[in-house]
Amino acid sequence: MSLPDYSGFKEIKVQLDSGVLVVTIDRATKRNTFIDALGADLKNVFEFADKDERVRVVILTAEDTAPAYCSGADISGGWSGLFAKDDDEEGELAHRDGGGQVSMVIYNCRKITIAAVNGHAAGVGVTALQLPFDLRFVWAGAKQSLPFIRRGIAPEAGSTYLLPRLIGHSRANSLLLTGGTYLPNSPLLENLYHEILPTREEVFPKALALAKELAVHASPKSVRYTKGLLQHGGESIEESHLLDSRAIRILAASPDAAEGAKSFFERRPPQFESKPSKDSWYPWWRSVDVKYRKTKL
Amino acid sequence: MSLPDYSGFKEIKVQLDSGVLVVTIDRATKRNTFIDALGADLKNVFEFADKDERVRVVILTAEDTAPAYCSGADISGGWSGLFAKDDDEEGELAHRDGGGQVSMVIYNCRKITIAAVNGHAAGVGVTALQLPFDLRFVWAGAKQSLPFIRRGIAPEAGSTYLLPRLIGHSRANSLLLTGGTYLPNSPLLENLYHEILPTREEVFPKALALAKELAVHASPKSVRYTKGLLQHGGESIEESHLLDSRAIRILAASPDAAEGAKSFFERRPPQFESKPSKDSWYPWWRSVDVKYRKTKL
Amino acid sequence: MSLPDYSGFKEIKVQLDSGVLVVTIDRATKRNTFIDALGADLKNVFEFADKDERVRVVILTAEDTAPAYCSGADISGGWSGLFAKDDDEEGELAHRDGGGQVSMVIYNCRKITIAAVNGHAAGVGVTALQLPFDLRFVWAGAKQSLPFIRRGIAPEAGSTYLLPRLIGHSRANSLLLTGGTYLPNSPLLENLYHEILPTREEVFPKALALAKELAVHASPKSVRYTKGLLQHGGESIEESHLLDSRAIRILAASPDAAEGAKSFFERRPPQFESKPSKDSWYPWWRSVDVKYRKTKL
User: Fold this and answer.
1) Which chain B residues are within 8 Å of C245, Cβ to Cβ?
2) Do C241 and B177 touch (CB under 8 A)?
3) What is the ipTM of this complex?
4) Domain boundary among B194, B215, B236
5) Which of B193, B237, B264 is nearest residue A104 as measured by Cβ atoms?
6) Which family does it belong to (chains A, B, C) (predicted)?
7) Is residue C162 part of a domain?
8) How many helices (H) and strands (E) does chain A have?
9) Which of B30, B236, B245, C61 has the most CB within a 10 Å radius?
């Protein structure tokens, strides 16, 4: 595969360093609002990262001087302004939520994904730009808000799937059915985050330090299988046993397992393979095609 | 629809004020024990609330001078005394748990539901009268107990479904398999509650203040869809995307979304529609009929 | 049934006292590493406990002077050394993970199971030897580590099923996708534990005290049904209602329910039946056979 070009984006800045792809939302003058062009950039960059062997960890962040990490959708034109005309021809069934498109690409990315939330976030800035990530770092002062019921719309971007899975229905109810604004240390939010940091400035460096460590110490193949098992695991302990038995058997016979044990005993950083080997079994789950097929010519 | 009459109840007091229906358990002299008549009143009042356009939020509470919020079933006659004779003719298959009947009506109510737990609670006082609600406020001194295994019976009222979903299996196990008594600030319980208050007297006013705010600021249609997505969401992020794309498309085209955006920019309270519009799509899930059909004439 | 003999084990010590079966890992000189022989002993002892009417609660623990509760698999021979030759003849499909075999037996045990984690734990020492238990007590100083991605293998022993169910996907991601080492009081771990104790020496006595209390105060039949409902409950509140209605009807008519109510009013310890009655309905779920059937003679 030819290497992707990370320079052509409009709404984000992208940098690849030591296996870590850093994606920075670049709309500070617009309070980092979510617009279609930002969604398109994010979809593309996470699709690139998914396939680029050089990338082992992806971080999404904002400038820590920006007014917000992401202040949600730009609804200055009202909600209906957010929907493309071509949906209308086919009716409501044709619509595919833009935040959800981004959520799915991030959630399905086979690399470790980290959101470094160094500012306030609302709406899609919480749902698509935080919930589908593997890990979330946050500034303790970053206000988080899911105000959908207060704006007359529905929670989007897969949030009613992701949020209860991440922190349970009790807190998901509290967040989505009050539509209130909460700080990360609130008992309603805290377990959403891997780490809560006292200042904005600490958020990205902390996330980057973990990312760089994992870029060396985490086997890309193990990450792929672990995410697969967490996202597409069995529906009983027995089904899970059948899946993880097969996964561990495949991995234990791989060079990464040998290197994992060897480097551990030699007390040195491992050198894991980056090139995805062709597995006959992975992915073991069915892909779901969510594309709308037009009925009209 | 003719307006329901909230005056004919025996075991509860009911008051409708500014869109908030306040239901108070009125059995203080009996420690607010759960009896069939209380169950019937609760089923009726939540069914009324579900359909009454004037009601936007329902609160269940007790008098804060009562010996308990609800001290569970009245088992002075033993457990077998709790089962109606007509079950016996058809055997165990015919039985429908009374607490569960209440749980289902509360859980399926399309309005925001809040339990204001201003006293101790045990058994069905925790299961049916707390778990199916969207939000729970509680007094820090209110002892909570799920003693089923210590009384030789099974946890009821959908609690083995609701409790793990709300706070995870680790804590559900701890609560149900020790049968112990815990205070709301216990790590085993705390995330069950939206807010824990130091005194009994603060519980109801706090719940009422949020209820009144949500009665104005939460779009009834948004609430209906959000609860639908949380309770009957997709089983993968892709399924969730298909559901919430359709939901947000329908809502974004509704008057509530226009008013939600407009009132936000005008910095004034929104005026949302109360009348449920006829949606061709909602509810999108299958209703389950749990009624027993007798085999004998 | 003839009583099982608890004296023939090699890697564990077993003691039955007042309804509590105490299983102590007896490999302190080997840092309590997990080897096939330990797995076999654990499978056997939990299978015995499941069927032995005298056993009401099982505790797994280690000597509190041991270097670890369980320091994981012994990988001094590399990962591939852990796989028996006979897997190889049939390929990866034939493999059944040893940790998972133990997890399933513990998870499916119909008695209350408690892990008393009085030392450090890593890998299978967390997954198989903690996650399938009903309750976990732990020493605050016991380091917990799930380093699979750092060793080039996959998380095993049903951990990708059990961990998210117990504490949610947010923390399961943090633990499994960083592969880091955490103390029990970390927000990433704390809700995994029923109780966290300041010293190693307090862990087992605390677990034993609860075990002895539950051996008297918890109806074995209630425990069986409660665990069944938690593990194999309905997939909606309606399905759950149908299951728990039937369960409570069966139990309410049982001698244990009568004794549960009677002893409660007489303020004395209950005397529950130990002999499992033949229930026509329990277990109501399908058993899953995970055994591999060889294709070759």
Assistant:
1) 95-97, 100, 156
2) no
3) 0.96
4) B215
5) B237
6) Belongs to the enoyl-CoA hydratase/isomerase family.
7) yes
8) 11, 9
9) B245
pLDDT at A84 over 60: no
> Which residues in chain C have Cβ-Cβ distances shorter than 8 Å to A191?
168, 170-171, 187, 191
Best mutation target, C80, C88, C148, to test chain A (most A CBs within 10 A): C148
**Smallest CA–CA separation between A286 and chain C, in Å?**
19
Are B183 and B167 found together in one domain? yes
Q: Which CATH number do you get for residue C79?
A: 3.90.226.10
Residue A168 counted as domain residue:
yes
User: What pLDDT, on the 0 to 100 scale, is given for residue C129?
Assistant: 98
Phi, psi (deg, nearest 5) at residue A129: -100, 10
In a domain, residue A7? The reply is no
* Residue that has been written with the tokens 């409501």 in this structure: A92
pLDDT at C279: 76
Same domain, B207 and B91: yes
Is position B3 within any domain?
no
**Cα–Cα distance measured from residue A146 to residue A249, given in angstroms and rounded to the nearest whole number:** 43
Burial level of C160, CB count in 10 A (0-12/13-18/19+)? buried
pTM of the model: 0.97
- The first and second tokens of residue B217, run together, are 């600021």
Q: What is the DSSP string of chain B?
A: -PPP-TT--SSEEEEEETTEEEEEE--GGGTT-B-HHHHHHHHHHHHHHHH-TT-SEEEEEE-TTSS-SB--B--TT-SGGGS-HHHHHH-GGG---HHHHHHHHHHH-SSEEEEEE-S-EEGGGTHHHHTTSSEEEEETT--EE--HHHHTS---TTHHHHHHHHH-HHHHHHHHHH--EE-TTSTTTGGG-SEEESSHHHHHHHHHHHHHHHHHHS-HHHHHHHHHHHHS--SSHHHHHHHHHHHHHHHHTSHHHHHHHHHHHTTS------SPP--SSSS-SPP---PPPPS--
Give CA–CA dist B161/C245, Å, rounded. 13
Chains in touch with B (3+ beta-carbon pairs under 8 Å) read A, C
Q: Do A93 and B246 touch (CB under 8 A)?
A: yes
Distances (CA, A) of A103 to A126, A162, C90: 11, 10, 40
Same domain, B92 and B239: no
Query: Are B100 and C245 an interchain contact pair (Cβ–Cβ within 8 Å)?
Result: yes
B204 & B259 share domain: no
Q: Do C152 and A247 touch (CB under 8 A)?
A: no
Whether residue C289 sits in one domain with residue C230: yes
Q: Give chain B positions within 8 Å (CB) of A228.
A: none
Asked whether residue A261 falls in the same domain as residue A160, the answer is no
> Does the distance separating the beta carbons of A242 and C154 come in below 8 Å?
no
Q: Are strands A12-17 and A20-25 parallel, antiparallel or unpaired?
A: antiparallel
Q: Which of A173, A189, A215 is the last residue of a domain?
A: A215
Q: Is the pLDDT of residue C264 over 90?
A: yes
Which structural domain range is residue B22 located in? Answer: 12-215
C135 to chain B, closest Cα gap in Å: 6
Q: Using CB atoms, which residue from B167, B218, B256 is nearest to A179?
A: B218
Q: For chain A, percent helix, then strand, then coil, each to nearest 5?
A: 45, 15, 40
Task: Report the domain count for chain C.
Answer: 2
Per-residue pLDDT at B2? 74
**Pairwise CB contact (< 8 Å): C95 & A234:** no
Do C226 and C274 sit in the same domain of this protein?
Answer: yes
pLDDT, mean over chain C = 94
| Shortest alpha-carbon distance between residue B82 and chain A (Å) | 31
Q: Do A98 and A238 belong together in one domain? A: no
